[in-house]
Amino acid sequence: MTATQHEALVGKDLPDEAPVPAARVRGVRKTFGKVVAVDGIDLEIPAGAVLGMLGPNGSGKTTLIRMLLGLTRPSAGHVELLGRSGDELPASLPDVGALVEGPGFHPFLSGRDNLLRVAACEPRLDGDLRGPVDAALERVGLADAARRRFRGYSLGMKQRLGLAGALLVPRKLVVLDEPTNGLDPAGTRDVRRVVAELHDAGTTVVLSSHLLAEVEAVCTHVAVLQRGSLLVSGELATLLDHDAELVVTTDDPAGAVTALRATGAGAYLRETAVVVPGGPLEPPDVVATLVRAGIGVWEVQRRRAHLEELFARLTEEDS
Ligand SMILES: Nc1ncnc2c1ncn2[C@@H]1O[C@H](COP(=O)(O)OP(=O)(O)OP(=O)(O)O)[C@@H](O)[C@H]1O
């Protein structure tokens, strides 16, 4: 049956096909001897997202990233990268740029010569490699130090060079494992700018980091890991909205806390304001409860959570 015949039969437009996610893992697990690094994770990374991979030290972020990139074989489960899996997965790799722990550069070559060697292995590049190499060095703020030996680079300069390697050609997916590691504030801003440029160009970005304010500034999605398991994943704005709190100004804060707690809400005092954590009570419920208790309400404000607070709640609850 053709699409037109099908449309005629059902009398309406066919639904659009779901876009292929940039990456998808199902029940993925990785053990190193007795250590369970990743413990059965299901995760989908939508095309075009900037996903922050978060979690305490040793929670499995790097291992999960390495499995996504085909650098480590899962002990169990399924990995799909840009629509390909199994023996087909490596065919997606030319569309993927990656900065994963300690890029192996040659200490006695300059940053630029190192990058020319990387560019020579890029299947998408041929002919004169100097143009793309110089553009990538410029983009990561390393043009001035490009002719210095890699051996003399600071940690942050090495990170910048690794990032330049991931940006040599346009990619569908860029994976950055702790890209701000060792970077000064200007370097952190550069990474933020590069990620924003990639996002604007429609590139999917996966970024692991411990800098929650940075992640909050650049990411559209997050996945939070702890001890090899996924605690939560999804759109960042939705997760932060869900954790929003109400901040209430009244003429009797202590009385307001008592009245709100009587409804089962976990209200508490923060200086002179009353805070009602995200939950069943909406502003009209709060106002009604307080008015019934004879307490004057001056203001009810919804304050969206910060990622730092969401992260602390999730990881502490799970401990
Ligand atoms: N090659 C390996 N051999 C043995 N154990 C490993 C190996 N790689 C990782 N692990 C262990 O797997 C667990 C997860 O490590 P992983 O590096 O994935 O965590 P992470 O979340 O990236 O940590 P960090 O934030 O410190 O970089 C840790 O207990 C780690 O010691």
In short:
By secondary structure, the chain is α/β, with parallel strands linked by helices. 34% of the residues lie in helices and 25% in strands.
Explain this structure:
This protein is α/β, with parallel strands linked by helices. The chain folds into two domains: 23-239, P-loop containing nucleotide triphosphate hydrolases (Rossmann fold); 244-303, Alpha-Beta Plaits, CATH 3.30.70. 34% of the residues lie in helices and 25% in strands. It has eleven helices and 14 strands. A six-stranded mixed beta sheet has the order 6-7-8-3-9-10, sandwiched between helices. A four-stranded antiparallel beta sheet has the order 2-1-4-5, covered by helices on one side. A hairpin with a 2-residue loop joins strand 12 (268-270) and strand 13. Helix 3 crosses helix 4 and helix 3 (111-120) packs parallel to helix 5 (155-166). Adenosine-5'-triphosphate (ATP) binds next to strand 2 and helix 2.
Protein traits:
319 residues, alpha/beta, Rossmann fold, Alpha-Beta Plaits, 2 domains, six-stranded mixed β-sheet, four-stranded antiparallel β-sheet, 11 helices, 25% strand, binds adenosine-5'-triphosphate, ABC transporter ATP-binding protein, ATP binding, P-loop_NTPase, ATP-binding, AAA+_ATPase
